[in-house]
Each structure stands twice: as C-alpha cells, then as structure tokens.
Amino acid sequence: MKYKLRKLLRRLEFFFWRIKKRQSEYVIFSEHDVEMRMVADSHIAMFAVTRDFEPEERKFFVSKLDKVDCFINIGANVGFYVLLAAIKKKDIEIHAFEPMSLNMEKMRRNLELNSLEKRNNIHLYKIGAGDVSGEFDLFEDDELPEMDSHYSLIKKTDTRLNVVEKVRVEPLDAVLPMNVLSQRALIWIDAEGFEKKIIEGWSNLKLARKGTMLVIEIMSDNTELYQKLKAIGF
User: Fold this and answer.
1) Average pLDDT of the chain?
2) Which helix (H) or strand (E) holds 193?
3) In whole angstroms, what is the distance from residue 117 CA to residue 234 CA?
4) C-beta neighbour count of 52 within 10 angstroms
5) Closest C-alpha to 174, from 228, 129, 122, 231
6) Fewer beta carbons within 10 angstroms: which end of the chain, N or C?
C-alpha cells in the first residue's frame, strides 16, 4: 500500500508541475553565484527549483571546481552538474556520459539555453560506461516512473521491469582520451548500481594524476568496489 501511494504521489507531483510550467520552455536556477536555465519538463529541473536539490553535493562540487582542470560526469542525466561546472568555470574541460536518448536530448537543449552548445571544451557521449562493449537494456524504475534520474542498466525484479530502450555501453578505456587523466580531474559517477562495472572497465583510472577526486553515489554497501578503488590509490 505504501509503495502504491508513493508511486501515485510521484506521478501527481510531476503532473501538476507540468501543468504549472506548460507555457514555459525553461526554468531558472540561481545559486552559487550562477544562474542557469533548464528545460522545464524535467524532474531535475523541478527538484532544483522547488526543493533544496542535493545541497551537500552541490556545496562540495562547487568548492572543488577551482582545484581541477577537468570534470568527468558519468551518468550526467540532463546535465545539471555539467551546466554548473561550465558556467562556474568557463575553461574547465568537461566529458559527460549519458546513455538515455531523452536525457541526452534535454542535456543538449540545456546547453543551448545557456549558450554553451558551441563550447569546444564540452564533450558529450551518448553511451553508458561499463566493463564490456555491447547493447544493454535500460530499465525504468516503476517506483519512480518517468523520473529523469531513475533509469538503470541493472534490472531489479521488484521495481525495474520496463525496458525503455536499448543503449550502447563501452568501457571508458575505449572511449575516453588518455590525456584526460593527465589533468587534475573531478570524476562524478551516478549510475544507479552500475558503478562496479564502470570501474572494472576503466583500468586507466590508476594512471590518474595526483589531485584527481572521485565521487560515486552508492545505493548500498559495496565493499568490493571500495577495495578496488583503494587498490589503485583512491
């Protein structure tokens, strides 16, 4: 019963947001001395404007930008942190990975809304990162339907049942230029449970320059992932 009620409330919240913003193509997020426009038809935009969206993460993120030359965003979604980095630090090199077609479309539009689409230091990759090359099913989380940030390459039999699309997955060793890790980088991974696969397909990570910072959102205890990262100096 609680699950069904939570699911209904999520749907209603986004339904009324869409009605409220149906005449607006974008909303404006202002904080951290940054003003950025975001496509209104997005849960991330709704949370950024109506709630205190990831306050601790944002504070940490902004505090580290001056210490790095490169931002690598794996699971970039609609580009919230890409926009924040690009506007806050104009010369930072950005590599953003997002496998879902609709999210990538919204991220590209968000760049256009902020006149960032022609920046040659922003690189977008419409692929997922993993340990092998291939096509994978991308699942929608039935508990949090239609939410930009709750799609996963991992099927959970209790809630992730619907396949949204098939997406390309590649090891980062195969697609990310080697010289990227010669810079001081901030690596931000939010992959809804696929984190271990990403690290297993990124042996070059051990070559990262001193000062590189790695932030991973982990949904549950993952001792094996922690041990892998510790072994290569993180």
Assistant:
1) 87
2) none
3) 33
4) 10
5) 129
6) N
For the entire predicted model, the pTM comes to 0.90
- Between the alpha carbon of residue 211 and those of residues 68, 182, 186, 214, the distances in Å are 8, 10, 9, 10
**Residue 14 forms part of a structural domain:** no
Cα angle at 35 between 21 and 43, to 5 degrees? Answer: 40
Please state the rounded mean pLDDT for residues 172-178. Answer: 93
Q: Which domain holds residue 192?
A: 54-231
CB 153 within 8 A of CB 130: yes
Quick: pLDDT tens for 112-165.
999 999 999 999 999 999 999 999 999 887 665 556 667 888 877 665 568 889
Distance CA 150, CA 147 (A): 6
CATH number for the domain harbouring residue 74 = 3.40.50.150
How many domains does the structure of the chain reveal? 1
Could you tell me how many helices (H) and strands (E) the chain has, helices first? 8, 11
